[in-house]
Write a structure and sequence with these properties.
Layout (H helix, E strand, L loop, with lengths): L2 H23 L6 E10 L5 E11 L2 E11 L5 E11 L4 E10 L5 E11 L2 E11 L5 E11 L5 E9 L3 E9 L5 E2 L6
Antiparallel strand pairs: 1-2, 2-3, 3-4, 4-5, 5-6, 6-7, 7-8, 8-9, 9-10, 10-11
Length: about 180
């Protein structure tokens, strides 16, 4: 696989997510923030925890939510969501869910969508661990340039039987497959 497509996806992700990370970390004195947290304990030993955060300032707005549950028998799950909107039009949305079972099995799935004046990024995937420790993973990501309309789609997967597999396919603005650019 040529190095540039993977780098292009990574750079697009970093550039696009840089906005949301900057918004999440920026909390100037004039920013407004609100956090709510609630924990519920039930008679059967189960519990649920809910957290919500809203932060707004001169650079934009960030919203985050998280719910964690446990049944008291060794099973638990966490679901989280987040969104960031910048003052210059950048938007990022992510969500994820992780489940752990009493038998040792676990699963995770997550997705991300982001866009700004330079382009857009969509990524989704997940991983599972069976009770015997067998792990599988898969992820698909697509980055699209706003300037050219060209895009790159990367896919990765892992299993103990087949190992790690990666591929990248580039498309022009009309959606036709094209050769991926290489580094000069």
């Amino acid at each position: 696989m040529p190095m540039l497509p993977r780098s292009a996806v990574l750079l697009s992700a970093i550039a696009t997510l840089g906005l949301s990370a900057g918004l999440a970390l920026a909390a100037p004195a004039e920013a407004q923030a609100r956090t709510r947290h609630r924990v519920e304990h039930h008679a059967d030993g189960s519990m649920a925890s809910h957290t919500g955060v809203a932060r707004s300032g001169p650079n934009g707005t960030v919203l985050r939510g998280r719910t964690a549950t446990a049944d008291g028998q060794g099973n638990a799950s966490v679901t989280s969501r987040g969104a960031a909107v910048g003052t210059q039009g950048g938007v990022a949305v992510r969500q994820g869910s992780t489940t752990r079972n009493a038998d040792g099995s676990a699963s995770h799935s997550g997705s991300l969508s982001a866009r700004n004046a330079q382009g857009s990024l969509q990524s989704s995937g997940g991983a599972t661990r069976n009770a015997d420790g067998t792990v599988t993973q898969a992820r698909t990501s697509t980055a699209t340039s706003a300037a050219t309309g060209n895009s790159v789609q990367t896919q990765s997967s892992y299993s103990q039987d087949s190992g790690l597999s990666r591929s990248a396919t580039c498309y022009d603005a009309s959606g036709a497959a094209m050769a991926c650019p290489t580094r000069p």
